[in-house]
Amino acid sequence: MRRTLLAVLLAAAAVIAAPAPGTAQPSSPDREPGNGPERNEVATLDNAFQAQSVLAQGENQADRHQGYPRRTTLRTYPENTADKSIKLGLAPYHSLAPKLNALQQKSNRISVEVVGQSGLGRDLYLVTLTAPESATETRIQERFRATVEEGRNVPAGLYKAPIWINNNIHGDEWEGTDGALRVIEHLATSNDADTKKLLQRSRVYFNLTANPDGRVAGTRANSAGFDLNRDFVTSSQPENRAMQDVVERTQPLMMLDEHGYVANTLIEPTTPPHGQNYDFDLYIKHGLANGLLMEKAVQALGHPEAAKPEIPFRDYPVGEWDGWAPIYTAQYAMYHGAVSYTIEIPMRVNRGDYDTLPVTELQRRSKINTDVVEATIKTTLDYVDDNRRSLIENQTEMFRRGAAGEKQRYIPDGFVPGFGPEDRFSTEFPRAYVITNDRSAPAAARLVDQLVRHDVRVERAERPFTLGGKRYPAGSYVVDMHQPKRGLANVMLEQGSDISDKAPVMYDISGWSHRLLWGASVEIHRGGQLRFDGKPVTAAAPTGAVDAAPGADLALGLTDQKDVNAVNDLLSRGLELRRQDDGTIVVPARERAAAKEVADRYGVRFTTAKAGGEALQRKVVAAAVSADELQVLRESGFDVRTISTAVLNAGFDWSRIDALYVGAGLNYTQLNAAAKTALDEFLKRGGVVTRGATGSRFNTDAKLLQATPVAGWEDANGVVNVVNGTGPVGANALPHSFVYSPQWFTNLGTGVTVEQRYGSTVIAAGHWHARDNGTGGQDAAAGQAAVVSGIAANGAKVVLFGTEPMFRNHPKGLYAQVARALFWSAG
């Protein structure tokens, strides 16, 4: 039988290898923490997480052509009685490896691979359930997967339908892992005919816990303080990079992301706005159908607490649970061809409830939640098995449209029940994007590497070429938008939209743009022929160079984070550098060898320096910051000491500090007398950089710069147009910035310099309207000072940011602006 099936598979693969032509009432789910103004309140400190770090080992991800099962003897972890899941009667992290090891010994249907490590070094498990395959059969299945990605048909009866179940991405939303374990054990050990047939026709992939550090600690965020379900197009966290690799590698037809907690249970599809780069017709026809079946399955459990599941598409107002941003697992996976869902299980067991409810009640709730998870997974497996041919054709068609460069389809009202004009979002795909080194070679290389990492196809021109009447040099990068994952390419590179008038609220950010915020020069070509001699890129070409003649001092402009890395690297070696008035850093000619070394390491380019400049030493920064700001500052090479109001009140040594950064968790008026005196003494000699409401309040309370902060609408967010000044921070900055809960400054005192203003049209892409009383809108912000600098009466050099230049480690092209502020203020 196996030999016969293999012969059929081989024959099919040979053919493929050849070229081929509402009615429920919405419950308004609570917005989760960390999305907006509240990020100003709590400072991120060096904490106990770091002491818990385990030794990270190398990944043992199998070659994608290796057969199944792929048995891995997983390393085990010591019992941890402090694991927060234990109290809920759920599986602690240390129990997972022994259970998976035992199942692998018991069953030939289960494979476990370690696909990465968490921030603290805990293994990330990809568990695959499928009928055994030889290496040859696996190679054929991989060929089928690649053929589907090319938009060409495969024999649906032979292609194993891939399904991905992602669990526990928020560490204190535990039960996805436990529901998945139930299904894993059933699929691995059940002898019923339906299960065996399912696994002959499918591969079911489980990311067992996406956030093991958060699971153990009982925190939503990972050990670095990041919400992993906001990081997918940025991929700044190791856990996100592992998930991104899994979705690209498996190319699921359908996926679930198991979360909690929304009363009754929430099952996507989402409300509008729906991402404008989707082929939404290919999503919604299956998305709604399986959502309705999951609803019935949850109801059939008989739990009164889950009797009325909510489907946002059907039940919620516009924007309440939108599918706009590609930062979430489900919305990101759609760009890789998945019909995807966020599932929110019903019974809250985290945060205050975890600490106050009796253990018996917590465990009762967790059991209900685990039942719901299990029901949604089993329903989805059945749906894919029943509709596998249609789902394969559906995914193939998405990729075919991209490769052919076809326009998006118009979706008529009533396409599925409830679809109307409010659901209709679309874009016009350009013919190509061209990425050059015109502004910043490191930024161009970083952007190219990011695109390639996300499975976007990029080519590097071998010779000069002309496009749209413009001549481009050899080495330019071209993103041909006739490619299967053109939606993912476009959602990262396009400007986006101002959707302020299209939704009264939005669940999270509404604007982002790698093209506008990552610092590279990217040009759009809307149409015309695309002819050039190029080769596919697997990694961007090296960009570092020392262009100055031997014997000349070397200059490095701070236009990119890599430039900052290079400067801080040189400073850490004790080299004597100079800083000029325009922010340029000068390296003496005698240190040319060191400059060459960092040029190669960071991809930066040194030119010939002009005379002049003041001595520059390494800066130590005391930082009251959110987690994202802390990571950016440290990734930039700064020596950072984390502080807060409580840390200063307990006594803090300012003697080695050069600059203070205030973004979160520091209130001047709450300092005790000793702490205030020590800080005031520092302010007579040290620099100050602030961000957001907490920073502005600190500036006012400490009586530094005369500048009145004005708060925009608290939920306003997105990419903004800015006009740069010529001061130490605004010069050479990008013409765009990012805001969340924006501010601007009025009543500026003598000597206060406007480094950056909001443009006359403020929002380039995002969501920003006025409050109900008419205040805080874009019109009020237009032309106002967004970033200012000056020297306080006590001598402190101060920079105030009303923008968000380090938000979630995303706007890479803005980090140099922060570094210039720190170097100037601490100079």
UniProtKB/TrEMBL annotation:
Residues 29-40 have a biased composition (Basic and acidic residues). SMART domains: Zn_pept. Belongs to the peptidase M14 family. This is Zinc carboxypeptidase. Keywords: Carboxypeptidase, Hydrolase, Metalloprotease, Protease, Signal, Zinc. Residues 89-380 form the Peptidase M14 domain. One of its GO terms (molecular function) is metallocarboxypeptidase activity. Its cofactor is Zn(2+). Residues 20-40, 56-80 are annotated as: Disordered. It comes from Lentzea flaviverrucosa. The keyword DNA damage does not apply. Residues 1-24 form the signal peptide. It comes from the Bacteria. One of its GO terms (biological process) is proteolysis. The active site is at residue 344. InterPro entries: Peptidase_M14.
